[in-house]
Specification:
Shape: elongated
Largest sheet: 6 strands, mixed
Number of helices: 10
Order of helices and strands: EEEHEEHEHHHEHEHEEHEEEHEH
CATH superfamily of the largest domain: P-loop containing nucleotide triphosphate hydrolases
CATH topology of the largest domain: Rossmann fold
Number of domains: 2
Structural class: alpha/beta
């Protein structure tokens, strides 16, 4: 698959000696949605800022659609739209003037029909002539997206796009991201909301202390690093687990009314059917069983904890 962004051995060391990025290697593909997860100070914003040409790298290279971000700065910048964390819009400007001005900054020809459709897609058209200061926080964030898309970029960066917005508006934003991806725009977002990545991302990257710990498809990540916990409720309390189950790592609750077994998916040598058969044949008074699948948040916490 042809990458639209290629990052090779990228590092950023500030004058203080702080290593913000450490030898990052990453390829981002056309039309995909990539979510970058990491705690505060992990390097997410520095990585985005470097690709966008806002921060100069110490070493390494970045290309956008084959063009180098330093040698071909003007070309690469026109292919990128950036939605920052902060609400950076003029309070007394109208929505329409804001996005028309932004399009003009990139030297794009006037195209009112495109901008009108963009506002409609972002549910902003009825606010077209409103001053920014009269908009809600969620609407202002939509204006930032409209600004970033005003010049028809191939790549859109969203830095914490739903920070501070309510759940309903957050889900609306997810729909917008899916629509952009369907239209061929590559979307890279940073987020603190793990469920956001779980909901919309094709691939997930985990970054911590300036290091890219992994980048995997969401489904593959869940499959290889996930855990399944089998929880079995008993009809009556038991004092200890039957000796026939000693070969398995089975836990018993203090009240003796429940046993559980945690299956790590990537440990292929474990045959879960053997474990369940042994539990069934153990003579335990089984009442019910449920399976709890680990979430992307569980995987993220484990990864960051292991590498910290």
């Amino acid at each position: 698959m042809d990458p639209i962004i290629s990052i090779k051995d990228l590092s950023k060391v500030y004058g203080s000696g702080f290593d913000a990025l450490k030898n990052i290697n990453l390829e981002i593909y056309r039309g995909e949605i990539l979510a970058l997860l990491g705690p505060n100070g992990a390097g997410k914003t520095t990585l985005i800022s470097t690709i966008c040409g806002i921060v100069s790298p110490t070493s390494g290279s970045v290309t956008v659609d084959g063009f180098d971000i330093i040698n071909d700065f003007r070309k690469t910048r026109t292919m990128i739209g950036l939605v920052p964390q902060e609400l950076t819009v003029g309070a007394f400007d109208t929505v329409w003037d804001t996005i028309r001005f932004s399009r003009g900054l990139f030297g794009s020809k006037r195209d009112d029909a495109y901008l009108e459709q963009l506002l409609k897609d972002l549910s902003l058209f009825d606010k077209k002539n409103d001053q920014i200061r009269f908009l809600s926080g969620g609407m202002k964030r939509r204006v930032l997206i409209a600004k970033a898309l005003s010049h028809n970029p191939k790549v859109l960066f969203l830095d914490e796009p739903t920070a501070g917005v309510d759940v309903e508006l957050r889900k609306d934003m997810w729909k917008i991201v899916h629509k952009l991806s369907d239209s061929g725009v590559t979307v890279i977002l940073t987020t603190h909301y793990i469920e956001e990545a779980e909901e919309i991302a094709d691939r997930v990257g985990v970054i911590n202390n300036g290091e890219l710990l992994l980048v995997e498809s969401k489904d593959h990540l869940m499959e290889t690093l996930g855990k399944k916990e089998f929880i079995i409720d008993l009809k009556e309390a038991i004092k200890k687990i039957p000796s026939s189950l000693n070969k398995h790592s089975i836990a018993l609750t203090e009240d003796g009314m429940q046993i559980s077994y945690t299956h790590v998916v990537k440990e292929e040598e474990t045959n879960i059917s053997d474990v369940l058969n042994d539990i069934t044949n153990s003579g335990l008074p089984i009442r019910d069983m449920k399976i709890v699948q680990s979430t992307l948040e569980d995987i993220f916490v484990d990864l960051v904890k292991d590498k910290s």
